[in-house]
Amino acid sequence: MVTMRRKLLTILLLQLCVCTLQAQGFQRFLHRADSLLDARQRRKKIDTAYIIRPKTKWTVSGRVKVTGTKLEIEGKERGVPFHSKMKADYKSTISVGVNYSGVSLFLSLNPAKLMGKYKDFELNLSSYGNRWGFDVGYQDARNFTGWHDEEGRERIDLPADVLRMKTFNANAYYAFNHKRFSYPAAFNQSCIQRRSAGSFLLGLSGQWQFAEIDAQQFESQYKAITIGIGAGYGYNWVPGRNWLVHLSALPTFCLISHKTLLVNNEDVPFKYHFPEVIITGRGAIVRQFGNWFAGTSMQYNFNNVGDKNKLAVNNQKWLARLFVGCRF
Description:
18 strands; two-stranded antiparallel sheet
């Protein structure tokens, strides 16, 4: 019996030692990660008269996001004008996120999808920094509804599941006045804008898209790859203490534009027509309450290619957020 107790005590002591070593190792890992994040923040030179970083490192926030998408095709087929317009159902998501020293992780849920009422797939990834940042989004949508109209013919209603569209969007910016103008202050609250400031922006945008309409009286297939470069301007207005209003526009002109369109199994010529553009607009309103903050933000993407007197396609996608968070 004594021998058995000694064995059990030895095992417990060994397990305690292992747990202690693991805890120490985890603490060293956290300390090392914390040092690297602090060094990363120190390398980012800012004018503290305009931008400051929160004194606390942790931020917890929740947000509600609503998105919408629209596709419009307009042109002429053998001299006959036609016009198609399709709009997707609005998508709503609820998110909870944690930010530590500028590194964020969010968990998002779509209530309609959980209940089986929404079958589309959408993934968004963004990174906002004072100097540069980007947005990347992918959408596979099938819940579009709309209509198709040809001159001299009856308008055709296009019900849900007729159009399937896959879209990959990406856009990036570089802010020249990054020491005084802060995108993060408006969009992820990892910085605080103290005084009004603006900045010229350099932008790069791209889109890949595949859309297919399969109706009883009408069939169409559209493929496109567009890449553009351009410049814009952003401004952070601080109308009063603890308030921030952000507006920015970043138009880019397509340097690469490859498109094909089939209508009723016939190839429709789709040549480049200047200007073909991708425009990204952003806005935000943020209010600080001590360690708490709340606000709303929006983003609008517009892509227009072609000539409406021959053939033009424009895509519009927008998103709006309401958010609230706390720093500690």
